[in-house]
Structures are given as structure tokens and as C-alpha cells.
Amino acid sequence: SLSLSLSLSLSLSLSLSLFLSSSLPLFLSSSLSLPLSLSLSLFLSLSSSLSLTLSRLFSLSLSLFLSLFLFIFFLVIAAKNDQNDPILLPRDAGVMKSDHRSLKNQHQQQLHTTQYQDD
Fold first, then answer.
1. How many structural domains is the chain composed of?
2. Low-confidence residues of the chain: pLDDT under 70
3. What is the extent of the structural domain holding 18?
4. For the packed helices 26-53 and 2-23, what is the interaxial angle rounded to 10 degrees?
């Protein structure tokens, strides 16, 4: 009974992660599919294993609490990993465009001075 519930929870978590990766946008699926599938598999496995020994209400509430805690934990880790990626804001794009113009002007001035030196 326990192995059957564990295999059922694993297959359900895999199908959920496949569904999330196909339905959610790319930036959400990478950070949400793993925590959701892990928390769902933990929820199902704990609810099935604990319900054999403890009361049904207690086991469901405990497994829901643990899966919610793990979901938030993995979501925080995914959010911290996303913060390390450089995101180009519109104001940064304007600064980069003006920097590119000033570099282009400097390069043209250097070309003019080298042409005058050659003459």
C-alpha cells in the first residue's frame, strides 16, 4: 500500500511538472515547476504514509504544512537565483544607448585626429 501510494505520488508530480512546463511561460515554469512538483509529491506521500498510523485529519494538516513550507522555501531559492541574473531596465537601456553614442563620437574624433596627423 505504501509503495503504491509513493509511485502514485511520483507519477502525479511528474505529470504536474510536465503540465506546468508546457502551460506556464518560460520564466515562471523554471522557477515554479520544481517546487510545485516536489511539494505535491511530498504532500501525497506523507498523507498516504501518515494516514496509516495517525488520524486522517492530523496527517493531512501536517503534510499540507510541510509541503507548503517546502514550496515557499524553494520559491525563495528560485527568486534569489533570479536576482543574480542581470535584468536590463528601460532606464539602463537609455544609459547604454547614450554611452554608445559618446563612444562613437570619441571614435570619430580619434579618426579625424589621426587623419590630420597623417597629412
1. 2
2. 1-63, 78-79, 81-107, 111-119
3. 2-85
4. 160
